[in-house]
Design brief:
Elements (H helix, E strand, L loop, with lengths): L16 H9 L4 H15 L10 H14 L6 H14 L4 H14 L7
Length: 113
């Protein structure tokens, strides 16, 4: 009842725009800025990592999303998903999800999430 949960990828979503502009123009040392970002994350107590997966695990996630959203996978779609991950320089769950959104778009499918 008396709680608010903030979910953000970085602190600029928690700060007003004029505070961000002032920070950019100030002479804050880079290390201090990094430490502040880490301390902010520590205050929330959560870290979310997007760790690289094996190709097999990555493809299993693609297949799982496809099954869940009833997207029929063609043989070439799995090859495209690997190319997708290579172009983005990582192979993780987030990349798999982004590929699924793109694939659904190409197939003119609407997915709800």
């Amino acid at each position: 009842k008396n709680s608010i949960i903030y979910v953000t990828s970085n602190r600029r979503h928690l700060m007003s725009r004029n505070m961000i502009d002032n920070e950019r123009s100030s002479s804050i040392h880079t290390d201090e800025s990094v430490e502040e970002k880490i301390s902010l994350s520590d205050r929330f107590g959560l870290w979310i990592g997007f760790h690289n997966l094996s190709q097999e695990d990555y493809l299993n996630i693609i297949k799982s999303y496809s099954n869940y959203y009833k997207i029929k996978l063609e043989k070439n779609d799995l090859k495209k998903s690997i190319q997708w991950s290579l172009q983005r320089g990582n192979r993780n769950g987030r990349t798999a999800w982004q590929f699924i959104i793109q694939l659904a778009s190409e197939k003119n499918l609407k997915i709800s999430f």
